[in-house]
Amino acid sequence: MGMLALQQLMSLQRRRGSIASVRKRKASPCDQDGDGGSQACKRMRCSIPDLPEDIWHYIHSLMPLRDAARVACLSRAFLHSWRCHPNLSLSRDTVGSSDKIDHILRNHSGHLKVLKLGLDGISCRYLDSWLHIAVTAGIEEFTLMPFRRKYNVPSSLFSDGVRNSIQYLELGFCTFRPTAELGPLRSLTSLHLRTLRITGDELECLLSKALALEQLVIIDCKEIICLKLSCTMPNLETLVLSSDEEVVNTPILPTKFLYLKHLTIDMVSGLSFSPSYDYFSLVSFLLASPSLETLILNVTQQCMEHESAVGGSSHLRKMPEHQHCCLKSVKIIGFSSAKGLVLKLCGPCN
């Protein structure tokens, strides 16, 4: 979008230049005396439109990162705009070396709104320094994927200014140990944790700091033995839980998610789930979500070790009749005849 706008402006400038060249043959301003004529001639030969600086910054911010970096070589105006570019996504593919990442982050310190760091194959020796340089007050979205599980994201990174501005936080393939000393994340509405080393108690501590949270995604965080979701998230609308090693039954939730609309539970296993896992315990999510509109349940496994509902000797359990009048879409992937999975999920709706 940014490149298209730039091309349109350049095309317009070329058309204006053609008209100006005709006028120049009639009366060239370069033939006039004084500095004014000389300056007019220089402006006429300039191939870049003369626009206010904030417009250039806006056009530049719409460009893909590679294009934004390349056009910064065209002029000092673009170079200044590049140093104030609010969105950065850096990885080995886009940058290539640690030295370049260090140089870019230092030049953009204090200007970033969106920062995505995917550091697969890049040394993390200087990562603490990079983060404290780049993650400053005013940042709104921050994604960190260092692919170093032993790297511990420092809680000191989340200063008062950062906590007040950050709205989207994604951490993956590293370690995060939040403590009670972590201040409130007042603006955080979306939290994504992917293959993150964090315990259930630490997650509970983190969630207690994010009262405005609307979206929570937890994928393959193996240190979470017991997932504790409580009334600390009164505004939660989207919840995604993914695990391939579910062995502990889902506890009855102590509260209701009054605004939860979209629930995804992904329990894909390469082999089979433990027979001790009770699918029926997932009903607690339904009971706790009276406004639920979309339910996606993925229980794919290669073979089933649970007792089958087909030809079984015991009666099927049923949850009490419960109205889910808001429920519009239910999708179950990997459905089997396991007794705990064959449930009466929804009561009649008026």
Automatic annotation (TrEMBL):
<dbReference type="Pfam" id="PF00646">
    <property type="entry name" value="F-box"/>
</dbReference>
<dbReference type="InterPro" id="IPR001810">
    <property type="entry name" value="F-box_dom"/>
</dbReference>
<feature type="domain" description="F-box">
    <location>
        <begin position="48"/>
        <end position="83"/>
    </location>
</feature>
<dbReference type="InterPro" id="IPR055357">
    <property type="entry name" value="LRR_At1g61320_AtMIF1"/>
</dbReference>
<protein>
    <recommendedName>
        <fullName>F-box domain-containing protein</fullName>
    </recommendedName>
</protein>
<dbReference type="InterPro" id="IPR053772">
    <property type="entry name" value="At1g61320/At1g61330-like"/>
</dbReference>
<feature type="domain" description="At1g61320/AtMIF1 LRR">
    <location>
        <begin position="104"/>
        <end position="232"/>
    </location>
</feature>
<dbReference type="InterPro" id="IPR032675">
    <property type="entry name" value="LRR_dom_sf"/>
</dbReference>
<dbReference type="InterPro" id="IPR036047">
    <property type="entry name" value="F-box-like_dom_sf"/>
</dbReference>
<dbReference type="Pfam" id="PF23622">
    <property type="entry name" value="LRR_At1g61320_AtMIF1"/>
</dbReference>
